[in-house]
TrEMBL record:
Sorted UniProt keywords: Cytoplasm, Nucleus, tRNA processing
Chief location of this protein within or outside the cell: cytoplasm
PANTHER family reported in the protein's UniProt record: ELONGATOR COMPLEX PROTEIN 5 (PTHR15641:SF1)
Biological or metabolic pathway of the protein: tRNA modification; 5-methoxycarbonylmethyl-2-thiouridine-tRNA biosynthesis
Highest taxon listed in the record's lineage: Eukaryota
Biased composition (Acidic residues): 327-343
Pfam families: Elong_Iki1 (PF10483)
The name this protein goes by in its record: Elongator complex protein 5
Region feature Disordered, mapped onto this chain: 291-343
Keyword Nucleus: yes
Amino acid sequence: MLLPLLLNEPRQAQPFVFLQSTPAQSILPLLRALCNRIGTHSIICNFLYAPPTLVEQGIPSVVVHDWTAEVPGYSNARDLKTELLSAVKNAPRENPLNIVIDSLETLSENQDSPVETYEFLHDVLQLIKNHPRPSQLIVHSVELGEVGPLLLQTDFSSSLIHLMAHPTSLFRYLSREYMLPPPPMTPDAKFWGIFLPFSKRMNEVERLSFGIDGEGSSNNGEMVVEILTRGINNQSRKRGTERLLAGWDSNKSLSCSILDLEDLKPLFSQNTTVEIAPDPAQNLSFNLSLSESQQQSRAQVPLPYAHEGQRPNATASNAGTIFYDPDSADDIDDDDPDEDLDI
């Protein structure tokens, strides 16, 4: 339920949201949904994608700052820091505020150093935390580069929502080759222990989707979103993290459970037909079964037991009784076995 909560009730979410696309699956459909949330004042900073790619027409609460044509050294670039920080300070105070940066890599390239990018985003995040309404900084990245890992540390933000997109073909492959369907079919500890290192092999994941025998990222616009959460709110110091999976249908622009994804439904279907083992006594030339009279006769045969009829004393304690029959090779006597030794 975290994705619906993030899309519909930003006041309940953390102030920093980090979206990460992978070479095999873009998270752009989810980024588009976050840019057009109702009831929030959004400032969209376009560095890579054209504004119509992310912003729907006719939404008055969305302000677009288009820097796609601003190339350092080739144009009279505007002052990015001053423009964005001024837009955040002058944003309406009565509505939640969203600052969306569509490409961390392009933003970092426009700055003099990764440290300058980090400090600039840190200043933006502090302004968002001081906003009277719960607000968010939403950053999208394809390759983490040098700045991405710094933003995921607790020094930048103690609370975090990290969304990473994965193709459904990856989960079909793991289920087929590793017998590892997604939770709840597989325990969380076992699944994440194999999925996390495998998903970091970007070349192999990309081959599964777009190689010679690739299955494609999705057959119908579906994807799986890995959600990592840390902390509860902007005052939280909790360092523990929680990881889970959610589904996204790009055609409907709707979040759902991975159980409802059409591409993954075969992984969760179970064969409810009970197969009865054949009777080995069938089709034999002789009879292995006993009639009722034969079963009664067999039950009346006395069993050859050496201590049959012997019972421990009823008045004795309930301690167990040991019966021992010596073998012919047992040397049972009361003599000292070491009496022949001259000590």
